[in-house]
Specification:
Blueprint: E1 9-11, H1 14-30, E2 37-42, H2 46-55, E3 60-67, E4 83-86, E5 97-105, H3 109-119, E6 125-134, E7 143-148, E8 153-155, H4 160-174, E9 180-181, H5 182-193, H6 199-211, E10 215-217, H7 221-224, E11 226-229
């Protein structure tokens, strides 16, 4: 997926996440599926998996790390094949009923890769679940809390700093020869990504970017609120 210059984002709160998880747990109970273990497709699926394990009274919880493509970090790279970063032991799934959980299913690549891998571990049964399902996804989870019929870039609370850093960096790259006031950055976040952030919220991210050397500033950025993009031709920011 190559992201355009302008696209709509939506901030998801922890309260909204918990409500989605509660709805998802109710759906799973309605279908009378009683898994022995929950596997969260990390990083995004780990948090819903943890909440689902609590709501469904499942003591066994496992993280399956997926090496996935991030279009915010790699804006001009063709998505590579999805790979399992850290394998899990066969005994974790063998002969058990497994529930695989993720946050968002948009292309379905991560979910398909995770399910294919888990099935090789000889479970008794495997079913999949996600908080939000985008209509264009090729993978179809067994359980979905919310169906989405209009595309947005969802900023989940566990990726807030990561995503806002990437979005602000995109703004700096569009303005390589100009200094930007905090108010201007906030304006462009709304103009290009439909995100309304306060000056304090923008400064929070900018301060972290300064600390990590992603950008540089002239003078005291808190008082002068003018920042400059660090000279670099990098296509991504490691976070």
């Amino acid at each position: 997926m190559v992201l355009p210059d302008k696209f709509a984002c939506k901030m998801v709160t922890w309260d909204e996440v918990y409500e989605l998880c509660k709805n998802l747990a109710k759906i799973i109970k309605t279908y009378k599926y009683n898994p022995d273990v929950v596997i969260g497709l990390s990083p995004g699926g780990w948090f819903p998996a943890r909440i689902l394990a609590d709501l469904l009274y499942i003591p066994e919880l496992i993280s399956l790390e997926i090496e996935h493509y991030d279009p915010l970090s790699y804006p001009h790279v063709v998505p590579p094949p999805v790979e399992i970063k850290y394998p899990i032991q066969e005994s974790a799934c063998k002969g058990k009923k497994v529930l695989i959980a993720d946050d968002l299913t948009d292309t379905g690549r991560n979910l398909e890769a995770g399910e294919k891998y888990v099935r090789k571990l000889m479970p008794n049964e495997v079913r999949t679940a996600c908080l939000q399902f985008l209509y264009v996804s090729e993978a179809k989870p067994d359980y979905v809390a919310e169906y989405i019929h209009e595309w947005y870039w969802y900023v989940y609370p566990w990726r807030r700093h990561h995503d806002l850093t990437q979005l602000i960096y995109r703004i700096f790259k569009r303005n390589p020869q100009h200094s930007l006031a905090v108010n201007e950055i906030a304006y462009q976040l709304k103009e290009y990504y439909e995100l309304e952030l306060s000056k304090e919220e923008v400064l929070e991210i900018l301060t972290e970017m300064l600390h990590r050397g992603i950008i540089s500033a002239k003078g005291d950025p808190i008082r002068r609120t003018i920042l400059y993009k660090k000279p670099s031709e990098e296509e991504k920011i490691e976070t």
